[in-house]
């Protein structure tokens, strides 16, 4: 058996081998040139002077990347916390993330679907199907995007309808844990100027967290579908409109919690076994979305783009927080949200030295949030028959349930511009400014206590309101040098994240707090290079962040109150390198490296000075590598082999840096054997992920602030299966 140290050495060795492979004999093949829209223009990835990773739709399918969670294994310095469940990831990019996991919050690493910002968790849903590509942008993006993105952006771009082409695909898959997948799409031209595309995905799987409580189902199941309809209207060469409407539903058995210490909470259970008393209460996540993207050429070299969107989402689940068959701690979460957004921008494509983007943005997000923690609700505290209000009063806060709720309304208005000026054929100056006005209200935030029988006990926090209003000016300045196929660039940018309301006020009015805005001063230098007759690309970047006023939940260890505060100062430095090589017509290699050193410089959490501690979700080292090899190509079609390895070094999930909660380094192996018929109509694949069945934690928290209970989410075990597909 290979131990953890051995797996780490294998992963490191594999990545070094992939990165250091010698060049094969020169031929007329080249590395793939990926076209992206990260900078709001269609450009080659190699000519965009920002740090961005891009993965095409075919590569996503080959690697079996069907959830946003899977992106962390292929994008350097991208991590996530799954503390609110699968498919609602909390991304960390270059160590920038959110450290309040309440459902009313929005991450500084933004998620976009087809240029539509999805801030609230309730909007995320099922989206990783029928994609053209995924783009991950690192660093502040306020001069390019309608909504502020201080830490970066994850862009999911779906396939748009095409004129004059009838085509489609249908795919089926089956895997362990009785997993069944079906997906497909069809493109239908309706006239010379009109085309439609409909895509869908359906997945079901049994839970892999085996529930040993009699009569209760296994946890961490899959039960979801998504459907998207798109309509393209292109009345002329100078006008194009795409209307999209989508909906999705997730209704699986909820995730399970791995409680520690194991000898107290998990006696007799293996690593992927659980005893839960509420496994039959399903997780419910429902989304609806409509958007209209339109572009019109208003003059030579000038295009006007409008992105109008409406979103609605409901997210509700009950968490067996204690991870046991007893009613020690259980929490019900409810999040209902609607959003309207309008992005309008004018983009130039002049042949001359000066070009610009000038945009205006409006976003209105309305949220209803409710949280209901229950503490030993099924225990008798007053010695009287039955479980009622008397038990809550006798044990308070034990023996009680608490519910808080509030309405939240946030509005954001912005004007932004991004400009460039060519000094010569080699040198280009870039800059941009953004003015943002944010305001928000949190109304009727109150809490009350109730008993095991549902009876009302007492109001704890009266219904109160709070508000904020903030203006901000941020921007970017940089220079880049294009010398043949080599691009060198240097940028300074300032990122901004608006105020946030605390959602965790249960026991005292003092918990109703508003965190100050976050700010990041980001410095970056980078290079994008091609060599070996354009068969190899190497993109590198180095950065330094001066991070101010990170928003964080501060828990009082004595009385359990929670307030939303700011860590005054942190600093993050590091870099990325991404390498791709077309070694031959039959073999392509890729590898990536991420390095981070992220530390708090000044801050107090829970009465403890955390200066010098490492930031959460910021491992010092991430590595990945892969190969795509053609084993045979002939009359029977193409047989290909895909292999991937990734490694993540040790990290913390909380800023206190509790040693027992540190996740050690781990390596993941995955691969697939693929067949495509000679006419490229039929496909089949055998695939596997986490081949070595690695067990690791995806989030860890000292939930009861030092009282001997650790709350953990654990990784998905080994999964494998087969897929077949047809194109028509």
TrEMBL record:
Residues 246-691 form the TonB-dependent receptor-like beta-barrel domain. InterPro entries: Beta-barrel_TonB, Beta-barrel_TonB_sf, Plug_dom, TonB-dep_rcpt-like, TonB_rcpt_CS. CDD domains: ligand_gated_channel. The keyword Methyltransferase does not apply. Residues 45-153 form the TonB-dependent receptor plug domain. Transmembrane segments: none annotated. It is a multi-pass membrane protein. Residues 1-26 form the signal peptide. A motif (TonB C-terminal box) lies at residues 711-728. It is found in: Cell outer membrane. Keywords: Cell outer membrane, Ion transport, Iron, Iron transport, Membrane, Receptor, Signal, TonB box, Transmembrane, Transmembrane beta strand, Transport. Belongs to the TonB-dependent receptor family. This is TonB-dependent receptor. It comes from Sphingosinicella xenopeptidilytica. The lineage of its organism: Bacteria, Pseudomonadati, Pseudomonadota, Alphaproteobacteria, Sphingomonadales.
